[in-house]
Amino acid sequence: MDLGLKGTRVMITAAAGGIGLEIARAFLAEGAAVHVCDLNEEALTSMRRDIPGQLTTSVCDVSSREAVERFFSEGMAALGGLDCLVNNAGIAGPTGGVDEIDPADWQKTIDVNTTGQFNCIRLAVPELKKSDNASIINLSSAAGRLGFAMRTPYAASKWAVVGFTKSLSIELGPYGIRVNAILPGITAGARQDAVLSEKARRKGITLEEMREIALDRASIKAFVSPRQIADTIVCLASKRFATTSGQVINIDGDLQMLS
Hints:
By secondary structure, the protein is of the alpha/beta class. It is 46% helix and 15% strand.
């Protein structure tokens, strides 16, 4: 299916690996012009070398307003405007009881996962208002709709993303800007392995046993692939989804509880 995205101008945060990298690949494959950021300068260099298409990059920590301003300045210079912003940047945050969590770790999780999206959206909106196919896609998580013991900073930040998204869809709808949130479930990748490894250590079990526990309350007992998430996001950026806004889209194998 031709999604009609050739020439679409896209900015993606934290796109040098994992889910973000798959999102960038998917947009580039559709003929979009893509500007991405990441903290890993070496990985960004590899992207520019290895991935075909109209791709430019910036080094950026989304929790820093100054860094985000540079990211947008460089992005606008490269793209000449903006049609789609994908807020993918996020960190796992600490694992532990609420009374064990270092306040600095709590704050860092909120700063990256929630405030980072605000930092980008406030600069994107003036450009998106000029587009005839404007969209914002925010990455939340299954932890943004389910309780998640021992991961309260992460869950709090991801619930906030859902509220931010729903509010923005109302606020920006009159300008034709669609705003949706993606809530991935247990997604394959190094970050998920690190989280599950720490939980396994605390429980005194193997990583494989922890993986089975994590999937126990999912109807489809398989990890989500980054490509599945990327494909959904690319569709949401298409004019074929011109009236889809304010949606909280779960990609989680019908997960009923997080362990």
